[in-house]
Design brief:
The protein is α/β, with parallel strands linked by helices and about 350 residues long. The chain has 9 helices and 9 strands.
């Protein structure tokens, strides 16, 4: 829904970015009642129960780290300086309300996990026409609150596949604003997107759940089409994601475009030629950059069921975080770990 440096942020991506569970100590093993020594050790300041003559010496528990209960949020890395550039999520939305829904949720998670980070959202495109006024205003405000000549904003297009039209609009807006801003694009997306798409398909009953979650469901698809927007370049990137998703599902998966070639119809015809009779459509989009009606119409046209867009999946948030950290590293003043904290839990 990561990498677009590393925010699942939420269904977050596997790896060291997410806190592991603490190991159980010896006093937690087994189902019997704890002995007196164990009870005493659990009471701060309590003296151990006297050992009976001839009884074996009580074994001291090994030191262990205990993962805190609830959702663990990592602090902002020390290498992120005070007055760090704003993280501006630039949304190529097809409607004027594109900053609501998943965009607002992604921004909220980023703010909660990184309280010191200035997270802003702005439209760069809607209704089929360029609309840079929103992003210009946000960039000008970020520049006004930071020293002249310093990087004032890292602007990240809120997309998971290439979108050249949105990048052109964004470059024009940055030039017009006069702000010291740099575009950070998501990268190394394919594995994170394959996982997020798998989750969305499983949620809709269109693919088997992953093994980690340890449950299975009846599926109603034997072939998948990843639907993108942004042109042929987006399809090319999504094709790699499709390959990885195919390996996860052991099903044929193809990438197609809602606004370019190859079309969804062409991909469906190719799957039918392979003997696939039940196709599922998986929108490889966050949400606001694609017309919901176009997704629904494409699914109806090929007789396919459809999963939800990626939305605020933890892997999508992680990609945004990685993109921000990559820009800071590129400028060379923050060190190798300059990266905002991804969420500590799995967000789906």
């Amino acid at each position: 829904m990561p990498p677009q440096g590393q925010f699942s942020t939420g269904s977050g991506a596997p790896g060291a970015d997410f806190p592991g569970s603490g190991q159980l100590g010896s006093d937690q093993l087994g189902s019997g009642q704890p002995d007196n020594d164990t009870l005493a050790r659990r009471q701060p300041g309590a003296a151990p129960h006297p050992r009976q003559p001839g009884a074996p010496a009580a074994r001291q528990p090994a030191a262990r780290l205990i993962a805190p209960g609830g959702r663990h949020r990592r602090d902002m890395p020390a290498s992120l300086p005070e007055g760090a550039p704003a993280l501006v999520l630039a949304v190529p939305a097809v409607s004027a309300d594109g900053l609501s829904g998943p965009v607002a949720e992604i921004a909220t998670v980023l703010r909660l996990d990184n309280p010191a980070l200035d997270v802003q959202t702005a439209l760069i495109y809607h209704g089929g026409r360029g609309d840079p006024a929103g992003i210009r205003s946000v960039l000008a405000d970020a520049a006004a609150r930071r020293p002249a000549g310093t990087l004032s904003a890292v602007v990240i297009p809120l997309v998971v596949t290439p979108y050249p039209a949105a990048i052109r609009e964004l470059n024009d807006a940055i030039s017009a604003s006069g702000a010291e801003a740099h575009i950070g694009e998501v990268f190394n997306t394919n594995a994170l997107l394959a996982e997020a798409l798998h989750h969305r398909l499983a949620d809709a009953g269109l693919a088997r759940a992953d093994r980690v979650r340890m449950f299975s469901i009846t599926t109603s698809a034997d072939g998948i089409i990843l639907a993108t927007v942004g042109g042929e370049e987006a399809v090319g990137t999504a094709s790699i994601t499709a390959f990885l998703l195919s390996a996860r599902l052991t099903l044929p998966v193809m990438a197609a475009s809602l606004d370019a070639k190859p079309t969804v119809d062409a991909a469906a015809a190719q799957l039918h030629g392979m003997g696939v009779t039940r196709i599922a459509l998986a929108p490889c989009v966050i949400g606001p950059e694609a017309d919901p009606a176009a997704i629904a119409d494409a699914a109806v046209a090929i007789g396919a069921k459809c999963s939800a867009p990626l939305g605020a999946h933890g892997n999508v948030v992680k990609l945004m975080s990685q993109a921000y950290g990559q820009v800071l590293r590129q400028f060379g003043s923050e060190g190798p770990d300059a990266q905002v904290s991804p969420p500590g839990g799995r967000h789906r």
